UniProtKB/TrEMBL annotation, chain A:
It is a multi-pass membrane protein. The lineage of its organism: Bacteria, Bacillati, Actinomycetota, Actinomycetes, Kitasatosporales. CDD domains: TM_PBP2 (cd06261). Keywords: Membrane, Transmembrane, Transmembrane helix, Transport. Gene3D superfamilies: MetI-like. The chain crosses the membrane at residues 32-53, 153-174, 186-207. This is ABC transporter permease. Residues 28-207 form the ABC transmembrane type-1 domain. Belongs to the binding-protein-dependent transport system permease family. It comes from Streptomyces caeruleatus. It is found in: Cell membrane; Membrane. GO terms for cellular component: plasma membrane.
Automatic annotation (TrEMBL), chain B:
PROSITE patterns: ABC_TRANSPORTER_1 (PS00211), ABC_TRANSPORTER_2 (PS50893). Residues 2-237 form the ABC transporter domain. Transmembrane segments: none annotated. Keywords: ATP-binding, Nucleotide-binding, Transport. It comes from the Bacteria. Its EC number is 7.6.2.9. It comes from Streptomyces caeruleatus. This is ABC-type quaternary amine transporter. GO terms for molecular function: ABC-type quaternary ammonium compound transporting activity; ATP binding; ATP hydrolysis activity. InterPro entries: AAA+_ATPase, ABC_transporter-like_ATP-bd, ABC_transporter-like_CS, P-loop_NTPase. Signal peptide: none annotated. The keyword Transcription regulation does not apply.
Amino acid sequence: MYELFKNLGAWLVGSEQWTGPDGIAHRLAEHLQYSLLATLIAAAIGLPLGLLIGHTGKGAFLAINLASFGRALPTVGLVVLVFLAGGLSMLPVYVALVALAVPAIVTNTYAGMTAVDPDVKDAARGQGMRGHQVLLQVELPLALPLIMTGLRLALIQVVATATIAAYVSFGGLGRYVFDGLAQRDLVQVLGGAVLVAVVAVVLDLALSGLQRFLFRHRTA
Amino acid sequence: MIQFDAVHKRFPNGTTAVHDLSLDMPEGGVTVLVGSSGCGKTTTLRMINRMVEPTSGTIRVGGRDVTRQDAAELRRSIGYVIQQAGLFPHRTVLDNIATVPLLRGWSRRRARTRAAELLETVGLAADVGKRYPHQLSGGQQQRVGVARALAADPPVLLMDEPFGAVDPVVRTQLQDELLRLQKELSKTIVFVTHDVDEAVRLGDQIAIFRTGGHLVQCAPPAELLARPADDFVADFLGAERGLKLLSLRTLADVPQGPAPEGGDWSLVLDAANRPVHWASKDAEIPVRPLKDDDSLLAALNESLASPTGLIARVDSEGVLTGVTSRDDIHERAGQAHTEARVTA
């Protein structure tokens, strides 16, 4: 056990591991690229949907059911399915990651919208704001903390799951996990897993810190 | 200024909130809508700025049918104050007040300048403007709510139980402020409350609603108190409505005479001739001097507390002008009741 951790430490800090096309730096960049792009696409789908449901109050069942749908979705299965249907490309990976991220974004956006004090919305309409003005000037800013939480959760989930890109022969930190498994190189598997975990935790901390800074004037 | 003509409101669930309401709310006056909860008073108020649409009938503001105007434009021309203030928690006080001017397309600078003026109008310090609503007390929040409603200088102000959520002391202060503001601004105000005392205090006319959205009586406070239309109104106004009537009359025309000399009790004055207390050989009783614009009710109350049955009258500087006896107050109180019953 001790030997394993010693080797793991050596693997993580070894300079030859960090450079080159198979180096950690490059794999990390790939991993972040997949994750950010997938989360952005998911946000482009999930935010308008959540805002619309929250603003109109219509389709709430969709927002609620999406959450359980998201939890039950077999990500790897989805990758394989899209791969079989569409051939080898990054598409299956993005489809799976986006499908994973959308529910968290929709449900949190919706939750943020419904948490806006009805008196405040009433006052906004009563002062003469039109529907889109209520949405953009009152509901959206007030829902923003929860919306950001949704984006953060989505991104963390995607980062943790983006290892599947390697499953269909692409890069990212998942490379080490899948290659390590194939080569029966436990240190490499662990190294990849540790890196993914560290990236996820660091992003989570950084983003929650940013949220605390941005919303320091809020009571709740 | 505001006319309801055979207005009916039935909600989709079948309840009738307002039943065949015809009512005039005169320009520059305060119309108070009172009644227990569920009587349709808030619905009535909210139909004026189309927050609720009438099922039938017409509502005119300044002669124009509200349903024929763009709802958002209409609302920008009518001040709206709600219970709990409904301030935007993510905006500073100044930006909250500037809401309607900005919606009307004023420049940010002009809107902010106007907002700063209004802070002063509603009695708040300039530095409050930079704070966020949650950093204010309930009373301060309500003042900001009033300032926000006044920002674009609308001729009409709708106030839906605006002082319902603050403690009685602050409530009285806010009522005083509103009366002071109203003297300056002469807005047409529609004010919803379930508090009879508040209605009597603020209203130029009071409309009493019964459950099911029926208007039972609409009259100036004195007439209402002296001649309630039926038992419902009488009950609603309370057993002490005779005393409430006295709260509407001032001491101004009640005669006064010189302070008595040589009795058991004498009125002690300070160097500037301001009353300090009643004194006898072995006791002192505090005195609360009254001015001409204090109410007969306050005078009656003070005369009961006074050891001589006399109240001390003072001018605006607090200097003694004379005393008035309990009998004179009683006589004037009796007259007030008779007048209200006869002339109303």
